[in-house]
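Action item from last week, closing it out:
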Amino acid sequence: MKRDASAAFFRDLKEDALTYAALKLELLKLGAYERTGKVISVLSYGLILLILALFLMLFSFIALAFFLGDWLHSPGLGFALVSVLYLLIIGGVLLCRQMFRKMILNTVISALTSNENNNNEATSEENPAGEAVGA
């Protein structure tokens, strides 16, 4: 009789452990999906802003080229000056490429870790004494 009770206990324990492992795996998958979604949303938002800024800059520089062309009485010279300005901007971006890389990397990392911070804050609010949740 004692053997049947212990066998049933271990069978139930095995089922609970398998259920726990399956749920934990599902939670990990959902967390990965959420993090991937956040990274994609942050990057796509940044790409949209970058494209809009590109068009703004393009049309502003075309207007500047026409203005300088009228001012200098030579449209070709106006566009040449704007081209030189573009080359200076490209040189500045190339000089600061490490800063841009770090900025993008920090944005992606913060998007990936924001979920962990939110989960840690929620856990500490539910259990302010810092005791184990199951205790």
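Closing note: The chain has a mean pLDDT of 85.
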